[in-house]
Structure formats: structure tokens, C-alpha cells
Amino acid sequence: MKRILVLGAGTGGVVTARELSKNSGNEEGINLLEIIVFEKEEKSLYSPSLPWLMVGSRKPNQIYENIRKLDAPGLKVIKGEIEKIDPENISVTVNGEVYKGDYMVVSLGVEQVYEQPLAAYGHNFFTVKGATKFNENLEKFDGGKIAILISSLPFKSPAAPYEAAMLIDDFIARSGLSSKTEISLFTPEGGPMEFAGKELSDELKGLLEQKGIKYYPNHQFISVSENTLVFSNGEKYEFDLLAYTPKQQSPVAIQNSALAGESGWVNVDRNTMETAFPDVYAIGDITDVPLEIGVSLPKIGFFAKQQGAVVAHNIGRKIAGKDPDKSFNGEGQFFIEYGKGKASATEGNFYTSPTPEVKMKTPEHLSHWSKWWSEKYWFFKNF
Ligand SMILES: Cc1cc2nc3c(=O)[nH]c(=O)nc-3n(C[C@H](O)[C@H](O)[C@H](O)COP(=O)(O)OP(=O)(O)OC[C@H]3O[C@@H](n4cnc5c(N)ncnc54)[C@H](O)[C@@H]3O)c2cc1C
């Protein structure tokens, strides 16, 4: 019986495990494949809903599920921190025990680095705890300055801070506090979502302008004290409420393994997602896929899902003695909430040459409902 090790029960890991399980022929009492998922957390988080949590449109327990719910015939979840990854021997060490497999799919995402003093003055909205705390403070807010800070590059979900800013603006407008509130977004980027070209970047900037959100690109954060942000260009900004993205890096287990490329992230074949080690795949945020325009493929869940489905399918083919016949082609889509029950759909092909052919639609109700549906479908399908 073949054994497949799936590292991580986040977006990519869940899709991979579910797809493998669905087509495995496993039933109660008949196990043709063994799928083992390793996860350090009790809960699998659906991150696209974090901005909704920030503005009170979701409760924490609506945006995650217990990993035990993934268990199925031939599919089991082992809770524990992956301590060591040995891609040459297709094995991992978890809770001191070594598990060897025939195939391995690595979907460990990014590791968030806990940073003081940022955590003392603001809320890391890339976590359930931080987004919840931000919401508690927003509910009590009665006017003043709200800052959204992209503290360092790279960061996953390149649209999330912009989406958060627009949803916060919507909340403030509904609370009747617009006239006494200033919302500002600071980032080291030259512009939003630059990987998708200048036109799209300008369109997103235009949406911020429409809402009166102040935008400060090329602002590299260096320190915070007494509710004041300090940037490398010497500028300072005093705030009353702060939401920030944390420093993000490749997980230590990857950095200490032979899978880490020069950047620390994992290099893969951009179509099959296979690493330099045969039968070892990496998908989602942990990978580094350079694009022709000189930046890397953005770290978004849509890609992790697509890549997981491709890899699961191709592993199934290999096990059946057939050639892999699916590939990830760079097509992607995500929604940016605008407020007023509208969202912008951003979609296209990120692999086109010489630049990605990606378009952003004007905010509309349909796209908001598409995002809403994606969340519902995620939990319905997988848990
Ligand atoms: C605020 C926010 C909004 C977003 N909005 C969108 C959106 O609208 N659309 C979209 O497409 N994407 C969105 N994303 C991005 C999306 O969530 C990620 O790209 C996606 O989750 C990546 O999937 P992954 O499987 O690579 O990593 P993850 O989903 O992060 O999963 C990695 C898993 O590995 C586990 N893990 C890590 N290290 C270890 C270890 N050593 N041992 C055991 N387990 C370990 C982690 O606990 C985690 O469960 C958003 C992200 C954020 C933060």
C-alpha cells in the first residue's frame, strides 16, 4: 500500500488530502492508500475571512474547523510540529517519530515572526487573535487615526491589507465616524499588487482614493513606540489604532531541510510543482515561483488549491502506473472586498509572457457574493 505524507492542514494540504482521499478507492475496512496529514495546530484556518473578522462580520469560530474533521477511511491527521523533513528519503519527524512515505506534498505556508514592540502597540490581523482584538478596539473606537501597516516584504495575500483598509472605511462610514476618522495605509511596496502591472496597481490605488484612504507607498517601517510609527525615510505617524501584517518567512523546518532554495522558500517545477527530489512536491505559499516580470508568483490560497488538486491527481496517476497528465497553468482569481456589499474580482493568468494578463473588475455585488460562497463551499466540501 502506498503512503502519502501531506505536510500542513492549511489550504493546500486540505485540498491535496481530500482529492487524494476522494479518488483513492478507500472505504470503511478497505484501504488502498494511506494518507497522513501532519499539522501543528488544532484548527485549520480559512484566512480569506480574517478581514471580515476585523470588522465584526464573522465570529472567530466561523472561520476555522477542527483538523480531526478531516479524518476519513485511509486518511488520518497527526497533530504535532514537524521537526525534520528529509526529502531524499521522503520522511518527516513529528513528535520524535519518523514517518516514511512514497510521496510527499509540502504545504507548510509562511511562518509569522512574533515581533515586539509591534505586538504591544497594534494587532496582527493575519491571526485570529489579532483580527479579533482589532475588532474589539474598532467597536469601541469613536474617531481618530487608524493605521494599516505592511511591516515587511514579502507577505502573503497581497490584496489583504488593501481589502482590510476598505472594509474598515466601510465600518467607520456605517458608524457615522467618517468626518472624525483618518485611515492610512503604509507599505514598503512601490504600489499595490505590482506583480499584476501598473494599470491594475493604479486601479486599486484609485479605489483607495475614492474612499479617502491615505496611501503611503515606499514607506519601510523601522520602529514603533508610544503609538508612533517610524519609517526609514524619517517620516513619523501617530495613530490611535493599528493593524499590521507581521514579518513572514519560510518555516524553520523548511529552512533546515534540503528543500530550501537560496531564498529560503522551495523551488519547484512551476507546472508540476515537483521539487528537485523525485515524488516530493511543494505547493502554495512555501514555494517560490519566479515570474518573467522579475517578481514571484503571489502567495494566495487560490493557487495553493489549484496546485494541490493537480498534485493529488498526478500522484494518483503515478500510483496507477500512468503518466501524470495535469499541470498548473498559472490561472488565478481572488476577490477584494470594497465595502457596501461589493467586491472586485481580480483574475487572469499569472504565467503569461512577458507580463501577467490579470484584470481587476469594478466593485460589484456579485463578486462579494462569490467570495461569500467560496467561504461556505470551503467548509461544506472539506469538513
Ligand atoms: C488576511 C488574509 C486574507 C487572505 N485572503 C485571501 C483571499 O481572499 N484569496 C486567496 O486566494 N488567498 C487569501 N489569503 C492567502 C491564503 O490564506 C494563503 O495563500 C493560503 O492559506 C496558503 O495555503 P498553504 O497551504 O500554502 O498555507 P497555509 O494555509 O498557511 O497552511 C500551512 C499549514 O501548515 C502548518 N504548519 C506550518 N509549519 C508546520 C510545522 N512545522 N509542523 C506542522 N504544521 C505546520 C500551519 O499551521 C498551517 O496550518 C489570505 C491570507 C490572509 C492572511
TrEMBL record:
Domain of life: Bacteria
InterPro entries from the UniProt entry: FAD/NAD-bd_sf (IPR036188), FAD/NAD-binding_dom (IPR023753), SQRD (IPR052541)
Family annotation (PANTHER family): FAD-DEPENDENT PYRIDINE NUCLEOTIDE-DISULPHIDE OXIDOREDUCTASE, PTHR43755
Protein name: FAD-dependent oxidoreductase
Residues of the FAD/NAD(P)-binding domain: 3-289
